[in-house]
Amino acid sequence: MLVRRFSVKSPLNCALPSTVFPHWFSSSNENDDVQKVFGILSSTSTPEQLKQSLKSSGVFLSNELIDQVLKRVRFSHGNPSQTLEFFRYTGRRKGFYHTAFSLDTMLYILGRSRMFGHVWDLLVECRRKDQTAITARTVMVVLARIAKVCSVRQTVDSFRKFRKLVTEFDTNCFNALLRTLCQEKSMTDARNVYHSLKHQFRPNLQTFNILLSGWKTPEDAEGFLKEMKEMGVTPDVVTYNSLVDVYCKGREIEKAYKVLEEMREQDLSPDVITYTCIIGGLGLIGQPDKARDVLKEMKEYGCYPDAAAYNAAIRNFCIAKRLGDAYGLVEEMVSKGLSPNATTYNLFFRVFYWSNDLHNSWTMYNRMMVEGCLPNTQSCMFLIRLFRKYEKVDMALQLWGNMVEKGFGSYTLVSDVLFDLLCDMGKLEEAEKCFLEMIEKGQKPSNVSFRRIKVLMELANRHEALESLTQKISIFGGPLQLHQSSMSKTETPDSLFTNS
Fold first, then answer.
1. What residue ranges carry the coiled-coil annotation (predicted)?
2. Residue 384 lies in a domain
3. 332 near 22, Cβ under 8 Å?
4. Which terminus of the chain is more solvent-facing, meaning fewer CB atoms within 10 Å of its CB: N or C?
């Protein structure tokens, strides 16, 4: 493939080169049975309808199919209650056992909707049927959702509850707790919990790697590395990568390079993650060209860049507003057989968003859809906010229609901006249609959005339509309640400590 160079006089206002982002993705036909079952989950509203539709569909509900359906529900923010019915219905079959992937995905879906009562009930059910079903990964999935809305104490209390559910309540489970705290809370919290529980579990290499990856300052990381060595735990590539990363984020590139030398002295070969950290660090100190050279240097050591490494280099040029160089790296990436992903696109969306470049944003979005790379929530937010600013109703509705049809992005976040636009433009019918589509997907529109649409419907004397809309949204617990989650009164965060 020929790589074409671009000369861009004004990066923020340049048109997207026609050869940039060519056919990055090969289209593939989605499994018909997965689509059929997902459609049943989306279109039925009661357990009885669900069961009858599944029976009459003629689809064989294999483990592989269930895995794919649940994955689809997760990324499309489907109806959690109906999905739970599907999970239980398929699991009741004689001799059938859900995969660990299915269980963890189902728990993630419930946890995201804060249906913690159902989470614990399901864990008990699965433990009763298969004592080995709940793994350390399951522990992490559940704790991650709890930690998002509960305190550190509540998260640790939930961790202790797993002692009765997990066959081997060991260091792997302890590590799951620490990883959750690093991601959802603070490093101070993780460190305190580590010191309070480390005598109950024997810390291993993974324990230290998890904690090292969360430190923000070189001093903290160096101190913890010293404690690790004093306990007789030998650092590995992951350990050194954490140290390189913290040095790079602290703009201490020289120290990062010294770590690379130390790794090689100990016969540890820096990997693609090591070099990706270096690339990011060079970008932070304003050296995007040197960062691009790292892509070539790493090949000399037998380490080949992946999509993340290229994205790091592309990000540097985007920050420097050198889009021509960024485009060039995308083409080089494609020529190496690597597929740019939503993160790659978002690097450009961010530049276009801050420069109010609607034309290039829309061109890039359409290219994504043609090539089969579905936007993520960040992509959608960049786009919908630009549409809102420029009052582009048609573009906003096309984005929403694709979200509903293909199941990408967060309906809740995008809908708030969308309804703002539609109501400001007096597009009542369109707002009502999108509102109903969201409800059919099992997602509750925000209280603010409902109020805006309610006012417009009252002004238009559409009282019957408003009453119908009110009844439909009442399945989430009533339209006038604050929109925090689809959690019922018996499924508050505190209730997760009383459910067995």
1. none
2. yes
3. no
4. C
